[in-house]
Design brief:
With 189 residues, the protein is mainly α. The chain contains 9 helices and no strands.
Length: 189
């Protein structure tokens, strides 16, 4: 389920060449290239922020601050890590900045489910998704972050290690423990 490294698919864009081209054009001030590049990451950025911030207005502010930070520091991006890992690192710092300035503690909340007509399959899928969401919410905030980075952002354990500054072996160990906890919680449901 993990995205391939830079030599293959980028995970969010069709290929690394397209991403590299967009990065290069954006570095030269091409706003359309930057917009195309960031559109492929916007959902992951937004959802990652939602894990840590409850207020939709604050989430929107952090998304904007992240976009500005990526735009203004794009020239400093090197090939030491994937572009996705680099962006997640910026998002993480912006969330920390938010809490440093507001002195709040992160609150995790379930996303609002849109009202719509659903057939039985959609209802079953929604119920399973809610069960998984509840299981994830039973984890502590650090565990929730690791789950998000692994499954939503589709980072490898090595990339998670870079973003969180946790040794790779520790990430693997914690993920094993998290999977056991989730399995037990879902069995109870």
């Amino acid at each position: 389920m993990k995205a391939e490294k830079r030599g293959g698919s980028c995970g969010f864009l069709d290929n690394s060449c397209a991403e590299d081209t967009l990065i290069s054009k954006a570095n030269k001030g091409d706003k359309n290239a930057f917009e195309l590049l960031m559109n492929s990451y916007l959902k992951v950025i937004y959802n990652y922020i939602c894990i840590h911030v409850k207020s939709n207005e604050d989430v929107q502010d952090i998304v904007q601050e992240t976009m500005f930070a990526v735009w203004s520091s794009l020239k400093s991006f090197g090939n030491g890590s994937s572009f996705r890992t680099w962006i997640i690192g910026i998002v993480r710092r912006k969330i920390c900045d938010y809490y440093r300035t507001t002195y709040k503690t992160p609150i995790i909340s379930l996303s609002d489910v849109e009202d719509s007509l659903m057939n039985e399959d959609e209802i079953d899928k929604l119920n399973k998704a809610i069960d998984v969401k509840k299981a994830v919410l039973s984890l502590n905030s650090t565990e929730q972050e690791l789950v998000f980075l692994a499954f939503n952002a589709q980072l490898t354990y090595q990339e998670i290690s870079v973003v969180t500054q946790i040794p790779v072996g520790t990430v693997k160990s914690r993920m094993s423990t998290i999977k056991s906890k989730l399995r037990k919680h879902l069995e109870k449901e």
